[in-house]
Write a structure and sequence with these properties.
The structure is a single chain. By secondary structure, this protein is α/β, with parallel strands linked by helices. The protein contains eight helices and ten strands. The longest helix is centred in the middle third of the chain and has 13 residues. It is globular and about 50 Å long.
């Protein structure tokens, strides 16, 4: 059973993308966006007077390519923020990864068939959904690359290892969005599916809101989409 329907007039919707709104694919570039999803999100956004944001590990440019540019967004775990559609992006002062790490990660992906390197402005991800037996070896390789390097962390995701700045996380993104209109003064509701979403859920709870998890509260992204469609209606 899906959670109860919130009061859209008082809620700030903070929604993860991959694994929450859309099903995870073997590689990030292979995801499929259900045809009705952007329109459903737009209706919920309008009912919430604009207070709906996509909070994703993807860059905002990729979020826009998948859903359209009509939403507030936090990309790369909060390394870039847009508080409203059409607003300029803001970039917290975060370090960029050492180019040598990217070269090393590319070498790791090439040495483990099925692994896929996803590059980002402030970090990168090694996906191994198509090479599950290589997960442990890829982690060891990344740990060796980062040995002794301050300011970055290695994070476990679903069939992936991600390197990102320690200060870039979805909790910080939620806090930053909730300080700005149209989110300020509303009750935050975060929905996510992965380890990277736990910071966002903790932040929403600390601000007096709610956190929902796909597996335990919806079962699958299809359940999240049906719940949003009910809110939109």
């Amino acid at each position: 059973m899906s959670p109860d329907l919130p009061d859209a007039g008082r809620t700030a919707f903070l929604l993860d993308l991959d694994g929450t709104l859309i099903d995870i694919a073997p590689r990030p570039d292979l995801v499929v966006v259900p045809r009705e999803l952007p329109a459903t999100l737009a209706r919920v956004r309008d009912r919430a007077a604009g207070a709906l944001a996509i909070v994703s590990g993807r860059p905002i440019a990729e979020i826009d390519a998948l859903l359209g540019p009509g939403f507030a967004a936090a990309g790369q775990h909060g390394a870039e923020l847009r508080a409203a559609p059409g607003a300029p992006l803001s970039h917290p002062d975060l370090p960029a990864p050492d180019p040598a790490w990217l070269e090393g990660a590319a070498d790791l992906a090439a040495a483990h068939p099925g692994a896929h390197l996803e590059r980002k402005r402030h970090g990168f991800v090694l996906h191994f959904r198509e090479a599950p037996s290589h997960g442990a070896a890829l982690r060891r390789g990344l740990e060796n690359l980062l040995a002794g390097a301050p300011g970055f962390t290695l994070l476990a995701a679903k069939m992936a290892w991600e390197i990102r700045p320690e200060a870039a996380h979805k909790g910080a993104a939620v806090e930053a969005l909730m300080r700005q209109p149209p989110f300020a003064g509303r009750s935050p509701l975060y929905v996510g599916d992965d380890v990277t979403d736990e910071d966002g859920i903790v932040a929403a709870l600390a601000l007096g809101g709610r956190g929902l998890r796909v597996d335990s509260d919806f079962g699958a992204p299809a359940g999240v989409r049906a719940w949003l469609a009910a809110i939109a209606a």
